[in-house]
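The instructor's notes for this session suggest beginning with a concrete chain rather than abstract definitions. Hand out the sequence below and ask the class to guess, before any prediction is shown, which regions might be ordered.
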Amino acid sequence: REDPGRTVYEAALRLLKYSPRSKKTLKDALAARGFAREHIADSVERLCREGLLNDRLLMYNFCRYLATKKYFGPLRIKRELYRKFDASDADLFFTPSTEDIDFEGLAVKFARRYPGREKEFIIRALKNRGYEYSHIKAALASAYQGGLPQENPDD
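After discussion, reveal the predicted structure:
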């Protein structure tokens, strides 16, 4: 008879072979396949001990990807972290994962990608990507040399 713990562990390895996953997404995927919670927890703990599952490194790389490739700001990145990782881990590792990202510079770079667009488009796009007011203000000042329009973009 086959050991159910071993089966869960092997299924987890197969999932990790195709793409890196957080503990949360791996647990969810294994639960969706009908494995018992206690076997899932044991397998995830074993993968962490063996260094095959590292949420901190994955979160660091995920933050970098979202910031530099998708031009997401800190608010949107944090929202994505909550979706993909355990909330306690997202809170714990958000600041160390993003402290050296120049969000203001990324906002400016994003705004310069759309030279002919009106300011309202840039404001809306940056707000939707989770940039803070100071980042938006810097982006507009750099891209338009006129700064913000009269109304506050947070309205």
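Then share the key points. Residues 148-152 have pLDDT under 50 and may be disordered. The radius of gyration is 20 Å.
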